[in-house]
Fold each of these.
Amino acid sequence: MHITLPGLSGAVLVYLLVFARSGAMLMLLPPIGDANVPARVRLMLALALTMALAPTVSASYPQTNPQNVTALFVLIAQEVTVGVLLGSLTRIIMSAISVAGFLIASQSGLSYAETLDPTSRGQQGAVVGNFLSMLGVVLIFAANLHHMAIGAVAGSYHLIPPGAPLPTSDMAEIAINTVSGAFALGFQLAAPFLVFGFAVNAGFGVLARMMPQLQVFFVAAPVNILVGFVVMTLLLGTMMTLFLSFYSNQM
């Protein structure tokens, strides 16, 4: 079966372009875009999202069909670029909690224990960061915030209409703002642990000067871990609430 360029017109072309945008977004969207999710599952979700969005956004596409293969390739490339932008921004938003987990693990002495992070495409990560990342994903689904990803795709047709020149300056600005906001949130979530860690280390530093014969490292390591777990138990709910609020605002 061969599909010629004149055959790619009307509804067929619309569904193809919508699939290019939504499929590129789902390819990077956490946790659907993670390596442990089968490719067939991502493909089925992209097809389902295309079937749902195509009838509602068909009016946004140009009424004239592409005249040659180059014009068609440009349209598909623009749709894929918008989808990659949406998926990348979502993954950057999720990196805020990974930054917080890394800082918490470093401050509490748990950074030496690293395991496979299922949300970062097979990379090694600190245990605390992996726990917070998985908890953040679970809470996103529990709070129905994953629906905002579909809303982001639908809203992108108003901000970046198909066939129009890509607003590269605006795309770069929103990427920079998202990266800076994610890192700032990560430091804010880990701020209590940094304060308590500094206080504990300062106290043991004074103790080491007063009692040189004391093996400070063997005493400070368990105390740091204990303080870290106690602070996390007290502040975990507040931390995840701030993260979910940041996620919903950015999306």
Note: The helical segments are 11-28, 39-57, 69-108, 127-142, 147-159, 168-210, 216-250.
Amino acid sequence: MGKPDTVTYDYMKQSEVFADAFNFLLYSGNKVIDSAELKELDTRAIASIYNESKGKKGNKAVQKYRDIFKKAIIKQDGKATYILLGIENQTDIHYAMPVRNMIYDALSYGEQITAIEKYNRDNKLTDFNGQYLSGFLKSDKLLPVITLAVYFGPDKWDGPLTLHEMLDTKDDVVLKYTQNYRINLIEPSALDEEELKMFTSDLGRVLQIIKYSEDSARFKEYVLEKEELILSKEAGNVIENVTSIKIPDKLKDGKKEIDMCLALREIIEEENNKIIKQME
């Protein structure tokens, strides 16, 4: 992974930030998903598919790697629901994202089916009602899988959001019977002020700084209206690597937190001094 991908991975992998992103997506920022109860999962997605070629029959393994994958528990109305959550970090627009994420989700469901089939066969639970061939019982259920793409660019996402947008047809009949897939996406430019307030970790402030990073006037207004803006070092690393903002070394070296308000004011002051020198 390149450096921007590495720093966004390190940042979003933090349980508090990961849970915050999904609580925003699913519950308008309410803390339904508890970061303390997230369980790290193997990001490698493997599924066996039936393969027949050159007269040989057998299974062929398909393998992909997610960015981040965790198991969560949702507790509401006295009930507990387990779900599988994946995040794909994007510092650039991916124009095949619907297919990419669809494959990840399909492989995750395929892995669940494979595990259930093995359990059923090992415990001889499939020797009745014609369920031996599938290995999957009528009563068996799968855990929901939700994949979220988090885009760290300041520009508007102009890639497709659905599989249908990628297809070379506008035929309504064809589209009606072609299953669609829509990506879940968080992008800074699409978030309004009220939505940015829904985040409870510093993810909201990171997205806000990215959103304003290429609007000089609004960026300065945003900085000057705040007295203090404390971010984690990981959050500061994301901002430095996905925008043109460079945080002074004296404000970040050896520190776990960064006062971004102070850093940004120093950057603005330095820019103003350059302008004054040019005018002399």
Note: Residues 50-57 have pLDDT under 50 and may be disordered.
Amino acid sequence: TEFQRFDRVVSSFKGGYYGASYEWDFVRGSRGYLGAIIGARMLDIDSLVSAPDKAQREINSVRTYSPILGVSSRVYAGRLSLENEFAGFSLGSRGSVWEFEISGRAHISDRLAVEGGYRSLKLKGEDGPDNGDISIKGWNFGLELSL
């Protein structure tokens, strides 16, 4: 579908990003760990782009998978810890996925911690004439409960 430069266009995108991975901590000690990550990610997006004045619309769904490889580490300093993770994979001209996260935790008890950090996710893909480039980044905060 082609839309002209000054056409009124309305768009809607909805989707999810899912992942599963296994982490093997090959260096472990009382002060932290260093590990390797292997896994997969899935991007699931539904899009709607329309020009209501011209009664044109395009609906599309994208579901794509990618393997990932990465590293993870955590360092303990008393009741504080600092961790980071970098993972991703490139499929050449077909696309790539890259994730980076760094965060700190304050451990209130053995089972409860508050966390704050920064996360960046970059996805890029190409399939024939269709292509996409998504970048999501920002601060995150949370509470961790270990059972």
Note: The first strand starts at residue 10 and ends at 29.
